[in-house]
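Quick check before the chapter quiz. The format below is the same one you will see on the exam, so make sure you can read both the input and the output lines.
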Amino acid sequence: MELSYYVKQRANEKDVGDAMVDLVAKLYPICRSITGDGVRQTLKIISQHYPVLVHEVPSGTKVFDWVVPPEWNITDAYFKGPSGERIVDFADHNLHVLNYSVPVNRKMSLAELKPHLHTLPDHPDWVPYRTSYYQEDWGFCLSHNKYMGLPDGEYEIYIDSSLKPGNLTYGEIFLKGQTENEILISTHVCHPSLCNDNLAGISLATYLSSIISKSPHKYSYRVLFIPGTIGSITWLALNEHRLPAIKHGLVAACVGDSGHLTYKKSRRATADIDRAVQLAFRDAEVEYEIEDFFPYGYDERQYCSPGINLPMGCLMRTPHGQYEEYHTSADNLDFVKAEALLDSLETYLSVFYILENNVTYLNMNPKCEPQLGSRGLYSHMGGNPDSGEQQMAMLWVLNFSDGNHSLVDISEMSGIRFDFIKIVGDMLVKHGLLQIVN
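Here is the expected output.
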C-alpha cells in the first residue's frame, strides 16, 4: 500500500488547508445538537465532498444502558427586555440558547429569569456553550457584560423548539480495502457554532475520506460522524458484530488550533495505534505531548470501555478544556488555522502510512550478515545524503527480521525513521534477502 508520499504531497498543497477552513466556515452557522435537523444538514454538506451513508435510529431505542433520546429542533428563541427590545436573540448566535431547551412562551421578572441565564464572568465578552440533554430545562447564554446591564422589570421569554419522538442521526463512510481489517475514525458532529470543537474534526475526517479513497489501501477505513457520547454508544450497541475487524482507531477532535500535537493513548496503552502515533510524532521532529488513557474526554472513553476495549486513541492538538476558548463563542472562525488543520491532516496520514506498512519479515540468509556489496546494495545507496542512515537501517532490518519483529518494532528499537526502515525492507525483499511473514 502506498498511502505515503503521493498522498502527503497532495496534502502539502496550501489550498488543501484553505479548503478545510472553507468547510468549517460553511458548517459554522448551523445549530447542531445530539439529534435534529442540524446534524442532517451537516451530513448533507459533507456529502458534497464525499458521499455519506446516513443512519436514523429511532428515539426510545435501547442502546446498552442508555436510551436514544427524543429529537430536538429549534427555529427561534429570544428574550425581550422591559422596553420591548430583543436583548438576546438565537438568530444572532446559536450559542445564545441552552442546547435542548424545551419550548417556552411566557413573561417573568428579572429575578425569575436570572436562574436560567448562563455567563462567563472571567471572560465577560464571550458567550458560553451550555446543554441540558437528559434533563428537561430551558435557558439562555449571553456575555457577562450584557448580563450585568439587564434592567429590572418584566421580560418576555420565547423559545420555539420541539422535543418529541424522532431519530438520532449519524453518518458513515466505508472505504473498502484489500483486507477486511478496519481502521476506525470517529468524530463528533453534535456541537453548534464551535470551530475547533469540533468543526475542525469534521473537516479533517471529510478530507481524510476523500484522500484515502483515491489511494490504494490495505486496511478498510470506517469513518463515523456521530453525536458525542450517545452517538458512539448507539453505534457500538448496533454494531458489536463489526468490532473484531477493527484493528486500529482514532477519535478526531480539536485538530484546528495553533497548539502542538497531543495524543491520548488507548486503554491498551501499547496497541499498534499508540506506537504508530508516537513514531509519526518522533519522525516529524515536532513538539508533541503524550497522555495516558483516562476515562473522560471524547468518545474514546466509550470505544475503550472495558467491555469494548478497542485500540482507539484520540489524536488532537490542544486537549479539550486546556484552551480558554473551549466551549465558548471565542471558538470561532478566527481560532482555527489552515496550517494547523493541514498539519493535523498530514499527521493522520503519516500514522496510517505506518500502520499500512507495518509488516514482519523473515531473513532468508540469517547465518551471519549477507554480503551486501556483491548484491550492489552498498553502491545502490551511493551519493544519497541519507546513505549512512539507510545502511544502518539495513543492518537493523536484517538482524531483527526473524519473523517475530515488525517494522514498527525495529524502528522503535533502532531510533531510525520508519520510512527509512520501510525503504530498506523493500530493497532487501527485492534482492531476495527477506520474505514477508505477515
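If your answer matched, good. The longest strand covers residues 154-164.
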